[in-house]
Amino acid sequence: MPPAPLRQSQKNWIRRLIALALVGVIAFIIGVDPDLVGMNLTPAVGIAQMGLWMTGLAMVLVGGYSAVRIVRNGRPSSLRADIGTRLIATGYVFSAVATLADYLGIGTQRFPNLSFGEVQVFGLVFGIIISLLGLALYWPRPIGAEIEDADTP
Questions:
Q1: Of 34, 36, 61, 146, which is the most buried if we count CB atoms within 10 A?
Q2: Positions in the chain short of pLDDT 50
Q3: For the packed helices 79-99 and 47-72, what is the interaxial angle rounded to 10 degrees?
Q4: Which pTM was predicted?
């Protein structure tokens, strides 16, 4: 049985959640490069800057996940969707650990000379890619695709 079409209230919530995700993208970009708005006060990357981009990333992922959850509109959960939700969370945790590695004591730099290194940048980007892959896997498949997959030997 195909899912019911989205109600107007659901469409309105999707718009709000997409707006939240867009605000998150802006916060992430400002956190990564505060020179864009003239807020770069130090030559190093600080904890406030990291907090801003991690908050922005969280807003993007929560907004995206919640909007897709509404789009799913009561469809039963599949293995693909379950893997997607876990990848979203795993990617965010990976990004957070890579970002805060020096502050957590697992990075190569020690206080007071902390810097955001190439390995941390790689970890942040890798975590973001994993999260976005999870969001793509969580997206519902077209109705006909599930039937075609079942018929394939």
A1: 61
A2: 151
A3: 170
A4: 0.84
Predicted pLDDT of residue 153: 54
- Report the pLDDT value the prediction gives residue 117, as an integer from 0 to 100: 79
- The H helix count followed by the E strand count for the chain is 6, 0
**71-78 — which CB contacts under 8 Å span 24+ positions?**
71/6, 71/14, 71/139, 71/140, 72/3, 72/138, 72/140, 73/3, 73/4, 73/6, 73/10, 74/3, 74/4, 75/3, 75/140
Please enumerate in sequence order all residues whose Cβ is within 8 A of that of 126, keeping only pairs 6 or more positions apart, or say none: 91, 94, 95, 98
For residues 81, 3, 71, 6, the Cα torsion angle rounded to the nearest 10 degrees is: -170
